[in-house]
């Protein structure tokens, strides 16, 4: 019962029995199926588009193009550059051109073949390193969507010191596909003269805003309800704006229910991915290993439209230098356009790319100094009261030191290092290695997203003592409904069974921004603490009036209520309050602590940080280049683990996504920008036979301002796994991977070069 | 075409287009939506059901093949409204996050459960290697299945 206990998830019985309803499990009478006709080329000018013949097909109820958009033909995210249905030019293969509404998905597909289109092909710009200033124009004058900088101290002066030791390198990271098991989908229908959308999504308020603009309708006439969502990981942050708009334009015109569920290949080909990145770093330290200065240049491949790129780039730029105390910092981040699928949010949000670079180069420095990589990190890690690269003092919930100590101890790092050395001496063809990474994560939207940063909750207690809680935060598998139930139950000292966390519905709750940036627990929690607190205050006053005496405190514990010398059952209290018309219903709206970021990238970039360290052991086959991941210690400071078992679930699940990113997930594009890996047989993700022995470790340095001390961390498990993996490969066989994933081909090639 | 088979212990028959998959048939003709479609290509395992006591991806079995077969879906393993022990143990182990892979995962485990054999942890890993999960990192799923198998006393 309550916070800090590994209670059973509130949604697990429904899910394990198959009774949960995902979008594709909803069938409505008269329902049509929507399908999207897309650009076959990566870059071109539409000369002619004719859908009349296709419309004549049997079973086709409508085909909608840009001409049928009642509002703006734009899918709003941050900038307004993303076209809803292409009108005159196409900028990536798969860009939506028309939406077909048909009796069955098959009929829609057949009709799509009859759509007549003439596109004058143009040379596509695929290589993002060639994008800035290219003759091929995708966005603005120079194809640059946005840039950020972080400048601290005086880098020019600092690096004049000739005694400093310098290392520099350039690192590349690839696309990563979210591979949520449930593909994108939505069902749209009219009810109460309101266009109602049920979809698989992280951010219902985004969808509501986007549809308001596309359909030119009032927000109150667009009701968005999150349906049970089968995984998201960032892939259902802004992208459902597109999916829901596609289904919605059909329902808008045809006035019947329209369901749209993507096929896997369509989903992989056209939905957002992690931005590929290039990171150049020059790191300077003194002869004792203390970091003195760092220069970083981060370039992101945004794809054809900006979507969430400005926010993604902000996080990447701020996280590049890692959790280290460095006085002189000069980091530039830039994101450019290419004729490829637009990239967006993915767990870690622009940071795994730069963390891979930073954590790799630290190992290069360690080698140069002849120091153990753990020791080098140890002397440079931030301590409470020191400043991050944005000049922000970190002292509240600052668990870095404890994370480091716990992880080194629990992983038995130094002893294993010796054992591995012995193993490697005795074995010719197999070599083992240990690799580490240390990192931090700014919780929440930070200064770049502060305009969306709100938290709200509605708590209602019924006469029988059961409660309903609504929050603006979605459940997508991470366990939010369980955590929200636990925090509400904790407030009244009752069992979670009494609490129902309702589905998120834009008609019932205020806009609290998206469920992203590891902000679910803290955002829902703040709202719940405030709403329950007010109800408790009201009950307190009522009891004082009723008993005609002052009570220092009204205490709720184990289903009982204690005040003064009195004791009462919780149910009895609620029954009394109800009969005497005490309002047991409360809406809370709160703002998190302020964040700032000035022109030089200085300020309180995030209100609090999570901290982590990973130790990964691998075994490399020198004859084939194959890498086995043996063991992974993953240690995270989470503030307060509201549900420790679910925290461990997040650690292991996120870490395996990070290991997949580092080892095998290899999205391939053709030279013309066509995405080639469109299913799980060509884009392979880790299976039950690929995961290592996980040792998830939790540190709880409670956040003074957080609900019950909690902060948030669920992206962090992914973020540092790729460099911990490649560093362990480097430790095993002395090859320096500057690109991921560490496929056998890539490892083998480096091994051959090493010889 | 008309086909007859056993579905969750009952004899059933239906008229179904020849190009329907078993997945589509159980979802759309019989309304059993607990079996999920994750890829429709036999790669993710979300649609796993039992056909003649063996785990199969129902998206790669054509409906005519099912004629005369014995099919068990996620809806068919609960008894008297009580969850199967595999489901109970998976819930207790924290094996469920987004839940989309879960019914398929349960069915792959069920195919082991009904065999009169002992299975090691490695066997379990291999048995669910065709069931992708993107949320959990697999450990808690395997914990749950292992506990359920132990309960058989083998």
TrEMBL record, chain A:
Stored PANTHER family: ALDEHYDE OXIDASE 1-RELATED, XANTHINE DEHYDROGENASE
InterPro entries xrefs: Ald_Oxase/Xan_DH_a/b, Ald_Oxase/Xan_DH_a/b_sf, Ald_Oxase/xanthine_DH-like, AldOxase/xan_DH_MoCoBD1, AldOxase/xan_DH_MoCoBD2, AldOxase/xan_DH_Mopterin-bd_sf
Obligatory cofactor(s): Mo-molybdopterin cytosine dinucleotide
Lineage: Bacteria, Candidatus Muiribacteriota, Candidatus Muiribacteriia, Candidatus Muiribacteriales, Candidatus Muiribacteriaceae
SMART domains linked: Ald_Xan_dh_C
Single GO MF descriptor: iron ion binding
Domain of life: Bacteria
Start and end residues of each Aldehyde oxidase/xanthine dehydrogenase a/b hammerhead domain: 17-123
Keyword check for Oxidoreductase: yes
One Pfam family of this chain: MoCoBD_1
Protein name, UniProt field: Xanthine dehydrogenase
UniProtKB keywords: Molybdenum, Oxidoreductase
From TrEMBL, chain B:
Keyword line: 2Fe-2S, Iron, Iron-sulfur, Metal-binding, Oxidoreductase
Domain of life, source organism: Bacteria
Pfam families: Fer2, Fer2_2
Domain 2Fe-2S ferredoxin-type intervals: 1-77
Gene3D superfamilies linked: 3.10.20.30, [2Fe-2S]-binding domain
UniProt keyword annotation of Ligase present: no
Signal peptide feature range: none
GO molecular function: 2 iron, 2 sulfur cluster binding; metal ion binding; oxidoreductase activity
InterPro entries the UniProt entry points to: 2Fe-2S-bd (IPR002888), 2Fe-2S-bd_dom_sf (IPR036884), 2Fe-2S_ferredoxin-like_sf (IPR036010), 2Fe-2S_ferredoxin-type (IPR001041), 2Fe2S_fd_BS (IPR006058), Beta-grasp_dom_sf (IPR012675), Diverse_Oxidoreductases (IPR051452)
Stated name of the protein: (2Fe-2S)-binding protein
Species annotation: Muiribacterium halophilum
